[in-house]
Amino acid sequence: MNKKDISLLKNIDNEILLLSHTAAILGWDQETYMPQNSVEERSSQLALLSALIHEKLTSEITASIFKDIKKYEDISFEKDISENDRYFIRKIFNAYKKQSLLPVSLVKEISKQTSISQHTWAKAKEDNNYKLFKPELEKMISLQKQKAECYGYTGTPYNALLDEYEKGAIVSQIDKIFHDIELRIKNLLDKILVNGNANGNKTGDIEDSFLYGKFDVKKQDAVGRKVLEWLGFDFNSARMDTSAHPFTTTLGFSDVRITTHYKENYFPAGLYSIIHECGHALYEMGFSKELKGTSLAEGTSLGIHESQSRFWENMVGRGKGFAKLFWPVFCNYFPEAGKNRTHEDFFMAVNKVKPSLVRINADEVTYNLHIIIRYRLEKMLVEDKLSVVDLPAAWNNLYKELLDLTPDSDSTGVLQDIHWSTGAIGYFPTYLLGNLYAAQFVATMEKETGNVDDLVEAGNFKIILDWLRNNIHKYGALYTPDELVQKVTEQPLDPSYFLVYLDKKYR
Amino acid sequence: MNKKDISLLKNIDNEILLLSHTAAILGWDQETYMPQNSVEERSSQLALLSALIHEKLTSEITASIFKDIKKYEDISFEKDISENDRYFIRKIFNAYKKQSLLPVSLVKEISKQTSISQHTWAKAKEDNNYKLFKPELEKMISLQKQKAECYGYTGTPYNALLDEYEKGAIVSQIDKIFHDIELRIKNLLDKILVNGNANGNKTGDIEDSFLYGKFDVKKQDAVGRKVLEWLGFDFNSARMDTSAHPFTTTLGFSDVRITTHYKENYFPAGLYSIIHECGHALYEMGFSKELKGTSLAEGTSLGIHESQSRFWENMVGRGKGFAKLFWPVFCNYFPEAGKNRTHEDFFMAVNKVKPSLVRINADEVTYNLHIIIRYRLEKMLVEDKLSVVDLPAAWNNLYKELLDLTPDSDSTGVLQDIHWSTGAIGYFPTYLLGNLYAAQFVATMEKETGNVDDLVEAGNFKIILDWLRNNIHKYGALYTPDELVQKVTEQPLDPSYFLVYLDKKYR
Asked: What proportions of chain B, in percent to the nearest 5, are helix, strand and coil?
């Protein structure tokens, strides 16, 4: 590949990035401020942008540059090209290869269906009406299966979808890890439920009623913004709004946006979704300036992304140090709720382990079982082992099996998550992988920075963020998840770090 | 032109419309919620969208369809094509002809410079620092002159720019109308200042201090939303936010957005900017469904657009009927301000004629002089008769000449308006044309609906809106401004309607 080709590719990549950010703006607006009657038209706008991205990526120029289709999969090609350029070429080559396998009609259809079924999902959830959502989900699953067939796969079509979110991950490996995690977590959960929670208190004894009640939303918002400042969230390059389902999206190198949702009657819902999304946002705000304007300025995978959000949410935000630091702020805004309580009560309350129905409010231990349920179900849907009409029953059965609970409605059951409505199938397992990556990263981090809890208690968030920036964030999508884990921790992914972390915290 | 060509053109037109709406979303976001560090990147995103629109409009397909460049200027071509399709073809042909004269590099450069100089203007206005803005304005004027040269023109290059905003308008005609208006308005103003305002009160005697004070912004917002409901603003297809400079923008057939700005110390600023922008929005919400998805679903010109906003703002919102209807609402929200006052006091206060420095807060009479000042200046800038460095002095001289006032700072002087920073040169005269169109339309309307003031007093806004929809809004951009005025009022534009309206109201 000559210099002119590389320069051509960089131009195309930059235009694709600008169009992707443009689509992100439309998506953000749709979830935050768009008038309700505009859903259909917004979906047409997004479909056109998808088609334009597809066209640019699969143009005659890229096709001619990439005519030797095997050459660019391995980073060792053409040693005379600089290392960074080779990583860049690999990245855009992989995107090209995938897109060139998809007909533009399918790209447009998926984009359009995404807006429609997402909107229908929101309505169905609100009305507790799975029937309304069912035909849209059927269309979406069918489109995702078509996509998998276009990509091609070994073993199960689910592998083709999984690879979109976690480059290199495969079902056989995930099955093995998740099987092991499931056994160990259930074992730990049984012990916690019998022997009591962290600090030896029995589950039933952990008092968390002071976090339920009436928490003024404006005050919650003020508290949330204070915490965001502590963590290093830059309001000149980012913002926070509210939406039905919290999310993070990137609209530009200097424009990262998170959303949260406040529950007036349950304080932790707002705070921890803010810290979680802030973790994603800090990753997106931490890419090296050298990557600006290229598609390397993005998180390398959803699993790595989730390692950042779960790290900040659980290992920082649910640590003892945070409880100590945060407690005076909480009491200042909500003196009634804080009366006769201590930071230790707060720590215990936000770490209370208790099987529950809703994933995003689940504790760190049972959370993983929520993911395993979704992983199993979506795999069956894609592999034609489960039909969309039987999904709610299958959902409820698995909740009974793994968490010994039955949803009282589809809104708190199968309709609780936005993901499937957006076509995000193969996405859920990255949440669990994120926990595993996070624990492994932290074990390495603490060798250099010392104990995270101590740093947080002292308000030294900057030391933590600097370590993450220098070791993870700055690389953006230069390395694959596997390469990054190896580079940072000097070993491949090892789930035992996470299990040790849980054991230590909860036994 | 065969059916296949028409269908091809409609597809292209639809894609251009979707991209234009996408650009509008980015523009809206930039003025409302975008983090400040993202200006440069947003400008790149917008520049790419402009280039894509340019590409689509000037593609080989359109070029080959429109190869006979003269044929489509007149609506009488090819009588076998349906009338609506002929209007559609004329519209896209005109857009094609203009765009095909511009090199894509200039399109991109203007788009990029727009974001940058708009941002610089905002900062310069805030800091009262014209020097900061000067180099950006110079670049913008130079780009606009380049554009005029590309388009070509007869007489002055200003004609080429004016035509962008008011199809068919030319300087020689505007000069004549504005000269006449200037003399008549100055004459009326002299009489008002000597003899007193409407109802015979002397200007100095009109008591409007109760509209200055402390008006809680949240309450102003609630009042504004109530008025929007009265007027027929549909919150399911539209929304209102705040921004530095109020504006209306269309993000889709069912997604029209207005912004306002509240002044805590002056009540009318918020209310009347809301009513004004609502007038624009009602036009955009009133296009016939048949035009959906085509570029005919837009206002036909800025002058006609302004006729709608100025009609609602002044002829409705500053009428006696509105004062009567609105007064109890005002007193309910602001009982202190309303104490010992009547709806008549309100009517007198919001119609107080007094020369002032800031256009958007000017009364109906002096407003026109503000426009004439800007028209004269921008024409000189484009014709190289005035340089950007001398603009503030020229501005101040004209304010002295026409309004006998001198700005105390550039922020309230030459920097007060956003327009020039966005490259909108040739735009200001449409504000005055809007007043003229409005008065002529209302004279026709009242023959059918009866007195507007009476309808408003009774809350019968729907009758007014229905008339506007059926006679003006539904046509979108089907007709040129001239054709529309002729169709609605059965005569060409006649400025005397407006002068008669002013005379009647203020003498």
From this structure: 70, 5, 30
> Across the interface, do A45 and B22 touch by the CB < 8 Å criterion?
yes
Whether A235 and B26 lie within 8 Å, measured CB to CB:
no
Amino acid at residue number A182: E
Instruction: Give how far B256 is from chain A: nearest CA, Å.
Output: 9
Q: Which amino acid is at A109?
A: E
Task: Name which of B18, B38, B254 is nearest A45 (Cβ-Cβ).
Answer: B18
Between CA B349 and CA B347 the distance in angstroms is 6
Q: Chain centroid to CA A501: how far?
A: 20
Residue A245's pLDDT is 85
- Name B224's Cβ contacts closer than 8 Å, sequence gap at least 6: B240, B260, B270, B271, B274
The distance of A281 to chain B (nearest Cα, Å) reads 14
Write out chain B residues lying below 8 Å of A53, CB-based. none
Tell me how close the Cα of A12 comes to any Cα of chain B, in angstroms: 12
**Which alpha helices (H) appear in B33-151, and where do they start and end?**
39-57, 60-65, 83-101, 104-127, 130-151
| β pairing state of A255-260 and A248-252 | antiparallel
Nearest to A471 by CA among A203, A248, A288: A288
What strands lie across the sheet with B255-260, from one edge to the other?
A: B238-242, B255-260, B248-252
This complex has an ipTM of 0.91
Active site residues of A: 277
**Which residue from A25, A38, A48 is facing B26, i.e. has the nearest CB?**
A25
From CA A401, how far away is CA A503, in angstroms rounded?
23
CB count within 10 Å of CB A305 equals 23
Using the CB atoms, write b or e for B378-392: b if 16+ within 10 Å: bbbbbeeebebeebb
- Is residue A153 classed exposed, middle or buried when 0-12, 13-18 and 19+ CB atoms within 10 A define those classes? middle
What confidence score (pLDDT) does residue B76 get?
73
Parallel, antiparallel, or unpaired: how do β-strands B248-252 and B255-260 relate?
antiparallel
From the candidates A17, A25, A59, which should be mutated to test the interface with B, based on the most B CB atoms within 10 A? Answer: A25
Q: Is B277 tagged catalytic?
A: yes
Place of tokens 């788009």: B111
How does pLDDT run across B363-420, given as a tens digit for each residue? 999 999 999 999 999 999 999 999 999 999 999 999 999 999 999 999 999 999 999 9
In terms of CA atoms, which chain A residue is nearest residue B256? A35
Instruction: Tokens 């505009």: give the residue.
Output: A38
Encoding tokens for residue B129? 């620092």
Beta-strand pair A255-260/A238-242: parallel
Instruction: Give me the amino acid identity at B17.
Output: L
Read off the tokens for B216.
């809680």
Give how far the C-alpha of residue A477 lies from the chain's centroid of Cα atoms, to the nearest Å. Answer: 15
Give pTM, 2 decimals.
Answer: 0.91
pLDDT tens per residue, range A140-191: 999 999 999 999 999 999 999 999 999 999 999 999 999 999 999 999 999 9
CA distance B99 to B90: 14
Numbered residues of chain B with Cβ closer than 8 Å to any chain A Cβ: 15, 18-19, 21-22, 25-26, 29, 33-38, 41-42, 44-45, 48-49, 52, 234-239, 241, 251-255
Q: How far is A47 from chain B (nearest CA, A)?
A: 10
Residue with the two structure tokens 């060409």: B492
Can you tell me the distance from the alpha carbon of B367 to that of B365, in angstroms, rounded to the nearest whole number? 5
DSSP state for residue B290 in the 8-state scheme: G
**Residue in A closest to B252 by C-alpha:** A41
Residue of A nearest to B56 (CA): A52
Contacts of B297 in chain A (CB under 8 A): none
The first and second tokens of residue B237, run together, are 């297809």
Q: Find the CB nearest A38 among B45, B241, B252.
A: B252
Element (H, E) at B258: strand B255-260
